[in-house]
Amino acid sequence: MPPCIRRATLLSTVAAAACTMLVTSANAVQAQIGRRGGYRVPAGPDYWVGLSYGYQNGTTIHDGATDQEWQFGYTSQIRATLEKTLQPGVSLGVSASFSSAPLTFTTPTPTPSSDSCGLQCSATGDITQYMAFVHGGTGTIGFHGIYDLEGGVTQFSNFRAKADDSRIGDTSAKSDFSFGLGGGVGYNVSRDAELYVTEMFDFVMHAQGNNTSSSAPRLSTFRAGARIGF
After folding, report:
1. Would you say the pTM of this structure is higher than 0.85?
2. Closest CA to 107 of 59, 67, 60
3. SS3 (DSSP) at 192
4. Which of 195, 215, 197 shows the shortest CA–CA distance to 205?
5. How many domains does the chain have?
6. Which residues 6+ apart lie within 8 Å of 120 measured at CB?
7. Which domain holds residue 60?
8. CB 167 within 8 A of CB 113
9. What is the pLDDT of residues 140-170, one digit of tens each?
10. Cβ distance 123 to 162 under 8 Å?
């Protein structure tokens, strides 16, 4: 066989062997990346319970039924949750939250239930929320983004004058449909334990009467908490 043909045959053999080695190496690397990439958490717990503590901004409510104005100041909030996992990283839950906020209570005419307050006074009022929500974004170990969508009821109740702790205004709770959304950052300590920091923005659909407003009252809450799976 002439030398030139022998060299061509040798080069073809080497090239084929090199291609085979390259393809084999690429497949091995892809398999390794597939096993390690993202390090997804295995299917997590079926249920979660959680507790958070947060800072709630104030808001002003114009009550259409009484023409009163409730100017709430900022306060702290505590919130408890129970969730059912729908799929890895997504859950459906219910929550109950409570805060007691400073309040400037204003009424157009004194009533027997607000004698100690007059037309305006410093007071306190309870804000309670009962919500159903969708929670998502908890699919990886370590830091990750999370989101929440919620809807339910916000209640305003137990208005008391600071001067003598007497009840003022309507003694029954006012319940309003509310909805909101928010997000933040979570950290999965393990497959069944998560720490998180979020901020929520809720719109409160309170009947405004003749006090026409360009936007619905809003409650924004910055909270930090933990969830435990079981």
Report:
1. no
2. 67
3. coil
4. 215
5. 2
6. 104, 105, 106, 107
7. 47-229
8. yes
9. 678 999 999 999 999 999 999 998 888 888 7
10. yes
Question: From CA 221, how far away is CA 230, in angstroms rounded?
Answer: 27
One-character DSSP codes across 130-141: EEEEEEE---BS
Q: Is residue 42 part of a domain?
A: no
Residues 26 and 57 reside in one and the same domain: no
Residues facing 127 on adjacent strands: 99, 156
* Sign of the torsion formed by the C-alpha atoms of 127, 177, 227 and 197: negative
Instruction: Please tell me the distance from the alpha carbon of residue 96 to that of residue 50, in angstroms, as a whole number.
Output: 11
> In angstroms, rounded to a whole number, what is the distance separating the alpha carbons of residues 185 and 198?
6
Q: Both 126 and 14 in a single domain?
A: no
Q: What is the pLDDT of residues 167-202, one digit of tens each?
A: 888 777 889 999 999 999 999 998 889 999 999 999
pLDDT tens track for 72-116 = 999 999 999 999 999 888 999 999 999 999 999 998 887 666 667
The answer to whether 197 and 224 are in contact (CB under 8 A) is: yes
Q: What is the dihedral of CA 37, 40, 42, 47, to 10 degrees?
A: 180
